[in-house]
Amino acid sequence: MKFSPAIKLLIAILFIPFIISAQGKKKKDTYEFEMVYEVKTTPVKNQAKTGTCWSFATTSFIETELIRMGKGEHLLSPMFNVRYTYPDKAVNYVRYHGETNFGMGGQAHDVTGVIKKYGFVPDEIYDAKKINEDEHNHGEMDAMLKGIVDVVVKNKGGKVTPRWKEVFESTLDIYLGVPPTEFNYQGKAYTPESFVQSLEFNPDDYIELTSYTHHPFYTQFELEIPDNWTEDKYYNIPIEELIKIIDYALENGYSVAWDGDVSEKEFEKKKAYAIVPADEVIDNSQKEDDDEEKNEGPVKEKIISQEMRQESFDNYTTTDDHLMHITGLAKDQNGAKFYYTKNSWGTKDKKYDGYWYMSEPYVRLKTIAIMVHKDAVPAEIKNKLGM
Question: Domains plus CATH for the chain?
Answer without folding.
Answer: 29-284+296-385 (3.90.70.10)
